[in-house]
Design brief:
single chain
Length: 250
């Protein structure tokens, strides 16, 4: 049954989608509550992601010194220089072994410790997914293993449908797509609080990593400025390509 609560939540979501704009100038006289920003980041962790590996980190920046360094790393964009706070979404594909181990421990506890022959078919599949499939997908050796896996999937694909995105570059895309879903969830959560954001593509990734003391193997997915918009911070009405030209119904 479609309840009133469901209708209300749907309306709130539509309002947040319509409210969210990429804000280029923030009002320095209007502050935002860091606790609410943190809550929105927590909500972002509920975003769907590949195999629930959660290969991400969220860096919440309120330090004026680091904000200044990030604004410079973001090429001096007004959305960065006027931001009250920032959130940097970081991909941590290098933590796949740690995340896999965490899943195995969680599932073992969930299913209770027992002899392997007592696990149900569903339980065995879940455990083997993280014990065997994830190491196969994420394991690599200077990119060489990835091409071997790609060749295996190509040969298998001749006879039946198979997953083909197994090279190092493919798994990088997978991790970034998941981080992008989390970033969008964060921005919609902020919009629901009448807070504004702007995702930035233009930044010096090395300087961002230096400012946040990120490890070499980490990758910056997105830098998101946060604040309260000035009227001139939104550049006119939202423009989108005509829906009929991008919607394909089969």
């Amino acid at each position: 049954m479609f309840s009133f609560t469901t209708m209300k939540n749907t309306t709130s979501l539509i309002n947040a989608i319509n409210y969210r704009r990429s804000v280029r100038v923030y009002d320095a006289n209007k502050k935002i509550d860091s606790a609410i920003v943190k809550k929105c980041i927590q909500q972002a962790t509920l975003a769907p992601n590949s195999s629930n590996m959660q290969l991400w980190e969220f860096h919440h920046i309120t330090s004026k010194e680091i904000l200044k360094n990030l604004a410079e790393a973001c090429l001096g964009q007004s959305t960065a220089t006027t931001a009250t706070e920032m959130v940097v979404v970081v991909v941590r594909k290098d933590l796949w072994k740690q995340r896999t181990k965490t899943h195995i421990n969680y599932l073992t506890k969930l299913f209770s410790v027992k002899p392997s022959n007592e696990y149900s078919k569903r339980e065995k599949f879940a455990l083997n997914y993280y014990k065997k499939i994830m190491p196969f997908a994420y394991g690599d050796f200077f990119g060489i293993y990835g091409y071997i896996k790609y060749a295996i999937s190509w040969l298998t694909g001749i006879f039946r449908p198979t997953y083909r995105q197994l090279r190092k570059s493919d798994m990088r895309v997978v991790a970034h797509k998941s981080a992008g879903l989390a970033a969008q969830t964060f921005m919609l959560s902020m919009a629901a609080e009448n807070y504004d954001t702007c995702p930035m593509e233009g930044f010096d990734s090395l300087r961002v990593k230096k400012a946040l003391q990120l490890p070499t193997k980490s990758q910056v997915n997105m830098v998101i400025s946060c604040g309260i918009r000035k009227p001139e911070g939104v550049y006119g009405e939202r423009f989108r390509i005509p829906f009929e030209s991008i919607y394909k119904h089969w």
